[in-house]
């Protein structure tokens, strides 16, 4: 087994089984790191908790819902507005977040009364919203508050509202993936089958595992509409609470993100006999294959082929332009869950990028199996890396780009590695034929941007020293010098020099043209 030992993790010997170097001689079973296990104490994981996986990833993208966390305010704040789950109801779910704001006294005496008061207050504050999801946190789970009983009382007093309860405290699983599972099953158990939808097509699907990041869902829905397919509900990006209660009437569950939402598809198949079809909206090849599969299922292959031909003719030349300039560029693909294996092979095949490392923070063994099998030999595969391991990997691999989430992305910028946000996108959407070209454009801009190249300039060795005449009050107190006297003199000299620098800069770098007068570069 080609385990990879990080220098920074030698003091934690268990970590060696969580990183593997993929070599040409080994089969998949020989190149598989351990995954989806409890984080080893001391490694300072960047994982999210099960509550985060339930609320932030799955629940919050529902658009016409008051999302209320029963717990401390910090839990709510940490899962609010960090992804671009846009919606067509003026982004209500992005603008507002709700919490019962539990404090120490509630831990001692209970918080059911304050929860009920908060539920009623929230509905009165937003009378046009009649649906609510309540998320359990570690604090409310530990003291045993009966959230369902409180919600039932409110629904009896306010018959026009409906409330969904998700019992997924942070400690409910090794990572946020445990929360994905819990909210999937809870929704099927408590809400599916309660609403009868209006069927308008012979071809009806649930679009599952789609979160409408920067409009991803709208791109795919356009293809479905052109094929004559009715999207009954989207689980859960731009999804409507009541539409999702009618999932049992679909003819097919079309699944995009298998890591977060395969559970509900499997349950709908067992309980209602609805087939599951896994698709991929990223990349020309995978997307074309996905549309063909859906067309074949409904017997409308000709409609799928017409879309593929039209979109490919329009966008393939632009993709080829970017691919010619990205050949051989090295990428660390560290997106987290299903994007690991959705993107690993196709960015190599269609853009020419070399994937030198893959990782997942919360994925299962199946995610690593698919991800590793689709990347090139020599790639470093890591499960649940911490910040130090990520830094060490980047120093060793020297990637031209890292595609990851915001936290490791900001760390990468500190060592001058450009990054693209895999979770919330930079300039999405990235799904669909046009979206894939947009993704290639963002990669190209990140790799070739002059701004990133300027980051390698060491200004500490500039002819004009940045620390000249820099005196702090601590320095002065150490020297027992009167700050008022020295500061006045030093400040005058420094500001005079700074003014001359500004004049020189303005002379060498004139102002940009006014709006409307920019010329093409």
TrEMBL record:
Database matches in Pfam families: Oxidored_nitro
Enzymatic class: oxidoreductase
Keyword Oxidoreductase: yes
Cofactor: [8Fe-7S] cluster
Catalytic activity: N2 + 8 reduced [2Fe-2S]-[ferredoxin] + 16 ATP + 16 H2O = H2 + 8 oxidized [2Fe-2S]-[ferredoxin] + 2 NH4(+) + 16 ADP + 16 phosphate + 6 H(+)
EC number: 1.18.6.1
Keyword ATP-binding annotated: yes
UniProtKB keywords: ATP-binding, Iron, Iron-sulfur, Metal-binding, Nitrogen fixation, Nucleotide-binding, Oxidoreductase
Domain Nitrogenase/oxidoreductase component: 49-447
Family: Belongs to the NifD/NifK/NifE/NifN family.
Protein name: Nitrogenase protein alpha chain
Protein source organism: Pectinatus brassicae
